[in-house]
Recover the amino acids of this structure.
């Protein structure tokens, strides 16, 4: 998957810096810290990086993949299109203007219901926010906030 994500983001794996096999926070934090004199730029678009990870492209050892916000999101979406990012029967979705903002999956309904209520409390004051709890097995929306007439 690393090779597909790098190709999608137009990143040449050979251009990435070598990384330790098991990086520690002390290895990665200076690459993205806003106060760091060695903060890196996005491996794809050259904007300032906000995230970094170690990838293992075919034919090379571990490499640093530094990403800006937009390239990180694009890579996550690519991964999600390849399959369900998480497993679980119950899905909670936070929407704004009917667009998904956050999604999470839980195997236990009680856990999903607690997360559903927590997201209403955390994000319910946003204009146009909506939270839904869905049974992925049946496709039924079990509950939705705010209530729809």
């Amino acid at each position: 998957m690393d090779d597909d994500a790098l190709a999608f983001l137009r990143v040449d794996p050979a251009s990435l810096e070598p990384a330790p096999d098991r990086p520690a926070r002390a290895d990665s934090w200076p690459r993205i810290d806003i106060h760091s004199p060695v903060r890196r730029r996005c491996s794809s678009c050259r904007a300032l990086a906000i995230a970094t990870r170690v990838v293992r492209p075919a034919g090379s050892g571990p490499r640093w993949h530094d990403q800006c916000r937009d390239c990180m999101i694009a890579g996550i979406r690519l991964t999600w299109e390849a399959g369900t990012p998480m497993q679980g029967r119950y899905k909670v979705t936070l929407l704004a203007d009917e667009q998904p903002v956050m999604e999470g999956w839980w195997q236990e309904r009680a856990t999903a219901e607690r997360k559903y209520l927590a997201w209403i409390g955390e994000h319910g004051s946003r204009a146009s926010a909506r939270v839904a709890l869905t049974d992925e097995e049946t496709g039924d929306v079990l509950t939705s906030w705010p209530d729809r007439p």
